[in-house]
Amino acid sequence: MKKALTPILAVVAVIAIIFCFVVNGQKGDAQNKLNDANAQLETLKSEGEAKLAEATAAKDEIQAKLDEATAAKDEIQAKLDEATAQIDTLKADAEAAAAQKTELEEKVNALTKQIEEVAAAAKEGAAAVVENATEAVTDAVEGAKDAAAEAVETATEAVTEAVEGAKDAAVETVEAVTEAAPMTHAEYIAAENDSEVVIESYVQDHQSWWDNKVTVYLQSEDGAYFAYEMACSEEDAAKLVPGTKIRVKGYKGEWAGEVEIMDGTFEFIEADPWIAEAADVTALLASEDLANHMNEFVAVKGATVVAQEDGAAFAYKNAEEKTDDLYFAVDVDGQTYNFCVEFYLRGKDSEVYKAVEGLKVGDVVDLEGFLYWYNGANLQATSLIVK
Fold this sequence. Notes:
alpha+beta, CATH 2.40.50.140, 3 domains, 24% strand, flat
């Protein structure tokens, strides 16, 4: 009997073992799926938290801009309220003047009536006396009328001037708020000549200060500007070091192809310094795209010095005193370009001035400077190296 049960027990044992393997396998699959689900849940949770943080930051930024706009609106409203109060006061003064005029007219009418009564009583025996009195009273009446009219006219002029002043103040306030956002470089380029422009940019260099004026080279990441003879004290000129940010207000102009800001004024802007690196425009010299880099700090490399009309490698603007601009020309890919050393930017004691004075026809040079325009590209060199 025991021998008959042994195979059956063995089979049962095998089945039990197989069942355990199957159950353990399914349990492992279920655990893996649970782990995958947990990992996906954690990923979704992290992504959700990140998007929530982005949304919160965007909301805070929008709220900050809304607060700025509300503050600007409140400031304008306060100034408009102040102007309205001034107008109301002046209107009250005008009404008081008009009341005085009415009172004077009533007194004149009463006096006229008294004269008429006197004239009627003394008509038969005192015609001459009445006539003299009438003339005197008439003169007094006319004088009173003239004084009243003058008082009303003066009050009216005062009210008119005050109202115009209040209007101008309100307009100036609105214009000041409107000017809060300076032009982009693209907006500046698109502006009409002789139109008013406002820009913010960084000083890269400037010419010599003279007669409370200074000419400044400006550049930002989106483009460059040339502010010609901008109003400036000698003290402020010393502060216009490279990297300084300023706001310039003036009028857009053009002379011999050079786009510039004329009749400008400026104010300093708190900002971290920024100085442009020289952009290599050698390959663009013969291209129309070169004008898009006007007034930028640029580099030209591998240019060959060519002769002036007299065969020399350079020429002085003032050949006798040698105290003015220095001209030289270079060849790049078969095209000749006229460059210079602007005397008020780099004088005769500067390294670049002396380097150009040492040039020989055929020298190959690398140079840097500001891409000025005078009937074509006319780079104003600030450094030159003979290769």
